[in-house]
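Sequence of Homoserine dehydrogenase (Methylotenera versatilis).
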Amino acid sequence: MKSLKVGLLGIGTVGGGTYTVLTRNAAEITRRTGVAINVVQVADKNIDHAKAITGGKVDVTNDAFAVVNNPDVDVVVELIGGYTLSKKLVLKAIENGKHVVTANKALLATHGNEIFAAAQAKGVIVAYEAAVAGGIPIIKALREGLGANKIEWVAGIINGTTNFILTEMREKGLAFADVLGEAQRLGYAEADPTFDVEGIDAAHKLTIMSAIAFGMPMKFDQAYTEGITKLQQTDIKYAEELGYRVKLLGITKRTEAGVELRVHPTLIPEKRLVANVNGAMNAVVVKGDAVGPTLYYGAGAGAEPTASSVVADLMDVARLSSASVEQRVPYLGFQAGQLNDLPILPISDVNSAYYLRLRASDKPGVLAGVTKILADRNISIDAMLQKEPDDNETEADIVILTHITVEKNMDAGIAEIEALPAIVGKVVKLRMEELGK
Ligand SMILES: NC(=O)c1ccc[n+]([C@@H]2O[C@H](COP(=O)([O-])OP(=O)(O)OC[C@H]3O[C@@H](n4cnc5c(N)ncnc54)[C@H](O)[C@@H]3O)[C@@H](O)[C@H]2O)c1
Ligand SMILES: N[C@@H](CCO)C(=O)O
Ligand code: NA
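Predicted 3D structure, token representation.
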């Protein structure tokens, strides 16, 4: 029987899950591929941990380059993370003519253009299903299943850690810091959890999806990224009163003027399926011109769900390594040389509906002043909440949901509202998405 020899770099959460799934389901995987996929060498700086997991059945080293340079290894699985060492390792593996499987979205979003060019020149596979939305086969769906469509937009909850935090905060009223610790214990968070909570990890994944959806190079440096650290319980509560849930959403959309590429907390109508995706689960909505909206849901993080995608990629390598480069699905789903250098829209040019919360002195005429500013800017109001001041207070919250306008118009309106003498402090602004059409 044919065999595929795997060199594993990093046997932590995802690497451990990958080893377990490959071992436990070996017979099923071989029934499907006709190939025996075996880990022949593991590199991890924590040698004892690597030995404990592999039970002495596999050669273990603390030198990742030993695996990358091992002539016996056909495919290198990079599960160390980061983008400095991992970039060197992946480029060296490619130079050595080895196929690569990685779960590293940070690496691909920042250096993917260079890595894919190197792989193309060498004729090797670089597979990365686990890098976006963990166990959900979204890369396969975008590159293959939806290949007949002109993709119009992609929007998703693509960070398990922040969705877990938002869910626990909403359902249990827990504090942000306590929930983050729990997400770290469960193995969802990045080595540096700032990547999760500031929306950077979601922007990495969105960058990869936008490149595949629209056939363009990775443009992570132009993504607009806003995390959940400034999000307040008050706004989660008011949004609910108005029939919305707040989710950290990644949105990429093709417009006449350019491509939107943005990650931010977003109000979504609670009747949408995506609004009810909770815990570390992820969901991605893809709108194609032929198929309409489609929804993909599943575990976005964690050892075995992510391993499910790593192993599926290994199975693709097992099937396709003997095929010519032309017979394989291109790295970004479009032929090399067919990528368009589409411009990314600055956030000020993006069109959106908005949630505004203002704090106002409880005096007559305040609301009239605010609505006049909005009307003068052609911003229509969709809904409003006016709260009574709490006991002994003279100020109260006003919440306004607007119809769609361009962000720079909204920001100019907000500046005028903040200048009104009766308005106290800054206006809170959150974006809203219907996700329907
Ligand atoms: N955890 C998840 O749910 C998840 C999901 C999807 C993608 N990812 C990605 O998968 C990758 C791995 O994540 P993880 O959660 O498994 O991380 P982890 O920290 O659990 O595992 C990383 C492993 O690499 C080892 N390592 C670190 N530096 C090394 C070096 N120089 N040489 C050899 N070994 C080294 C560590 O000892 C550790 O065992 C990252 O790119 C991450 O973004 C993680
Ligand atoms: N830290 C990531 C892991 C999965 O990519 C998350 O929470 O979604
Ligand atoms: Na995936």
